[in-house]
Design a protein that fits this description.
This protein has one domain (29-480): Up-down Bundle (Amino acid/polyamine transporter I). The protein has 22 helices and no strands. The protein has helices at 8-16, 33-44, 47-60, 64-88, 95-103, 105-137, 144-158, 162-192, 218-232, 238-241, 249-258, 260-278, 290-297, 301-335, 353-362, 366-372, 376-408, 410-415, 426-441, 445-448, 450-468, 472-499.
Length: 500
Amino acid sequence: MSERTISVAETTALQTGTGGHRQEPHLARALGNRHIQLLAIGGAIGTGLFMGSGKTISLAGPSVIFVYMIIGSMLFFVMRAMGEILLSNLNYKSFSDFAGDLLGPWAGFFTGWSYWFFWVVTGVADIVAISGYVDKLAPGTPLWIPALITPAVLIVLNLPSVKAFGEAEFWFAIIKVVAILALIATGVVMIATHFTSPNGAVASLANIWNDGGMFPHGMFGFILGFQIAIFAFAGIELVGTAAAETKNPERNLPRAINSIPIRVLLFYVGALVVIMAVNPWHSIDPASSPFIGMFTLAGLGIAAVVINLVVLTSAASSANSGIYSTSRMVYGLAQDGNAPKAFGKLSPRKVPQNALLFSCIFLLSGLVLLYSGDSVIGAFTIVTSVASVLTMFVWSMILVSYIVFRRRRPELHAASKFKMPGSGFMPYVVLAFFIFMLVALAQADDTRLALVVAPVWFLLLGIAWYFNRQTPLQQARMAEWAAVSTREKATAARATAAGR
């Protein structure tokens, strides 16, 4: 049967088993609670924290602490909005599904392909980071070697089954968590023992505010800090792409989402406070990882090498998550007629292998970037800025979908056991914050490029949608969506009138 959006009436029938079901191959619900929890943690601890935090500190100084806290708190509301909608209809495979259902087929097309492009760009950034750290661990290694090996390893990790991916990501995340906890513990000992660095600086919490205050570069420096920091959170929405493969999503998704504030405070704020207390912010090299720098400063040479390996693992973890999510997103797009049918097929192990291989091919563009840029961190900054604009678009689509969800399906919102806090006004606050983020990206040359690339991408998407919408399948989907939307608006209006 042809793919189409699911109306409210069909949702109830599908979930209760009283109606028909969608005749399509199903993804396997093989990700347990530990997989989802660590997938959420791994998504929250991105390559941007390990590799990009040095530059963020140089731009914002100690106020970088507030930068990460503000971004983390805003994204918590995005995640709560996403969680409420996903749990209102367990037939949604991802946020691309509910965007298409609530806003129209065009929204599913734009959200799905933009998320795919975001992760391809992020995967390229991760390959750039991996190549940079391989060069540090084994100087002289040709950059093309890790750039070719990484996609091959990702294919091996993702092809067997979703559980194989979950296990790999589980251990990747464990390594990142242990590394950050080790850094915090080491820093606490250095502060407690008043460690003195070669430049004469004594480890103390006072280092955070004694050198120019919390805002040494003023508000402009504070705003610039958001440019790179926002990318550190890219991937936080990964649990949304895993919704269709999660066991007991009613229990596991809320647990993963509600732990976001704790993760931000511990892994971001905790680590950066310790780093700047041990090593005054102005002496941190923006072109290298402050995590590696702190272990080197402590005289733990072996630990510094280990952290290099951990950061390399973090980048591999991010790329692994990206390939997983892009393959599922392209699979969903194909199911909705928004991508070639071949990408909508599953392997015998219920893995969308064609979509997976399609995404991996694009990671090879990292080779071009590595050999065309002046430095690894320069290439990383450019790519991550583009990725930041794309991920903010996806987060914005989640929020706009939620606004429409509350207005058109008030009965589902009222029945939800996982309501978004401040649901009446916080979506607008967070959307305003994203506009502020775009302004921040426009303030520097290396991040301003993203504001040029993104419109070109959306123009290409618009052209692709113009032709795709002419197909009989999309015409039928749009007609059905319009009919369902009209009925829901009328029902919501009657309910509002009756409540007065």
